[in-house]
């Protein structure tokens, strides 16, 4: 950083590195954060760099349309000047930063480069009163892929859902299916409940400061992500394996519902988070670092939950980077690995046991495609259709008894992550 840089420039430089990591290197925003903000001392500056990058990713096609409308010759997609302009524009247009602060801290990012162009385009857009459209636009390739898979209405609902970060959902440890306990917590947390054991609070709430967090009375988990464990019901001491467990939301649900749980994850550092979450909530599970593609339990078990690693396109509201870095070829590769994991999961079950497969993906190849192929290649398994009564209000099984959650679900109550769940029984 140059000594003459205005205060706040470091945060914009970090935002530039973050956007480069996502858009050029294809990395998840969260995993690029530590390295991109390494030279920033203050936590609020690091948070601001993150907020700028996330908001640019939320509104990227709309920002680019403004930039293209104000430049005689389109800037290349990966030009530093384009990224600098995205960072400068998003601040007054969405984050409330005064125009002069936004541009003065962005110009040093293009030192020795097209500074005048960046200044000129920013100035002319601001003078003309440029605004972002009220409904964000999806990247064209994503809009096309999702409209083809699910119809235009889904793509429109997804676009509406990007506009703002979603609310925070909480799963209660001790509520079980008792509506009175849930109602009590909804009041304490000043939230609303959309299902037994669930409370929804506004986006941006400071989670560790809320009542019950330090005592481990609840954990953060989107309502869609609660469905797989809900569909296994109460455990009564029976044995379950959570095959890709970290950070552990479903392990905690299963343990709280009385299952004897073995939590597996490939990545030891991620399994550490499961252990921390178990310690905080005072729940029990055996944590094992292992590869789901080769793991075999000592004895077959009553239930296996495979919440497989996936494109994560269902959580685009929280992680808008997925909209820009997940490509069709990657989705194909993920579906192959999910099929291999599901076959392995099937081997771990007792006869009569229940297998749950889930992904936080909006790609049919990773959901319906994997489960259709599984049933076709595993004649010893049958689909175990989900009944409407098993699901929270606002969710519904599809014609085959699987649960496909699309954008637009619970739209009036703050939405839900995109998700897919299927249940099978071993004959
Ligand atoms: C979708 S996340 C799981 C979320 C978790 N079920 C929950 O509810 O908190 C996928 C997890 O799979 C793990 N994973 C990826 N490849 C794996 C493998 N081959 N074997 C086991 N775990 C794997 C990742 O480390 C990651 O923690």
UniProtKB/TrEMBL annotation:
Q: Does the keyword Hydrolase apply?
A: no
Q: Where is the active site?
A: 360
InterPro entries for the chain: MeTrfase_RsmB-F_NOP2_cat, MeTrfase_RsmB-F_NOP2_dom, NusB-like_sf, NusB_RsmB_TIM44, RCMT, RsmB/NOL1/NOP2-like_CS, SAM-dependent_MTases_sf
- What are the record keywords, sorted? Methyltransferase, RNA-binding, S-adenosyl-L-methionine, Transferase
Q: Which residues form the SAM-dependent MTase RsmB/NOP-type domain?
A: 147-427
Where is S-adenosyl-L-methionine bound in this sequence?
A: 244-250, 265, 291, 307
Q: Which Pfam families match?
A: Methyltr_RsmB-F (PF01189), NusB (PF01029)
GO terms (BP aspect): methylation
Q: Give the family this protein belongs to, as stated in its UniProt record.
A: Belongs to the class I-like SAM-binding methyltransferase superfamily. RsmB/NOP family.
UniProt name for this protein: RsmB/NOP family class I SAM-dependent RNA methyltransferase
Task: Give the originating organism.
Answer: Sphingomonas naphthae
